[in-house]
Design a protein that fits this description.
elongated, three-stranded mixed sheet, 6 helices, alpha/beta, four-stranded mixed sheet
């Protein structure tokens, strides 16, 4: 029995090593004028994510890599291609990613995070963040931030908590957070 148990452990370790090696093997992304649903299926197989495409998500995208890239880059690259085609990904629980027209993305439930904390989303996915301010008025600061957020995305003020709530792509939220960090300082000479 002990030999079988040790053999089972050895096989499990070997399988784990093979799985890690395969997961780190570079992949070449070569989708030229490819249907979005075909690319979503391929990226889903690479990442283990399940994509649910809105019926209005139609069209073709181009993703090309001259040489192999880490499999972990396939998903953010796909998100960038979707964004350029006017679509957005909204991540849900269990690795389910809904792909919708960008203008509809902010109305869907998204991951919510606090300022400075990770919401678990990729930079190319739509997310919502609550950013409390310490020194400045959120109502006044929001006017300086509006040009940084596309009209299709949400930027609102929550006065009782002196907070800004933003729904946008994760990479843009980080940019807005950096601007807020520079502006939310005590008034000099006040």
């Amino acid at each position: 029995f002990r030999r079988r148990a040790l053999a089972g452990v050895a096989v499990a370790l070997l399988f784990s090593a093979i799985t890690v090696a395969v997961a780190q093997t570079p992949v070449t992304l070569n989708f030229v004028d490819a249907d979005i649903d075909v690319v979503a299926k391929a990226v889903g197989e690479l990442t283990g994510k399940t994509f649910v495409l809105d019926p209005r998500v139609k069209g073709k995208i181009n993703i090309q890599s001259a040489k192999g890239v880490a499999p972990g880059l396939a998903y953010p690259t796909f998100l960038s291609a979707l964004r350029m085609a006017g679509f957005a990904a909204v991540e849900g629980p269990g690795g389910i990613v809904r792909v919708v027209p960008e203008v509809d993305a902010k109305a869907l439930p998204t991951a919510v995070g606090e300022a400075g904390g990770a919401s678990g989303s990729y930079s190319g996915a739509i997310t919502t963040k609550v950013i409390p301010l310490i020194h400045q008025s959120a109502g006044q600061l929001v006017n300086a931030l509006r040009p940084l957020v596309a009209a299709a995305n949400a930027l609102t003020v929550y006065p009782p908590g002196n907070a800004i709530i933003i729904t946008d792509y994760g990479d843009n939220i980080r940019k807005v957070e950096a601007v807020i960090a520079r502006l939310d300082t005590p008034n000099v000479g006040a």
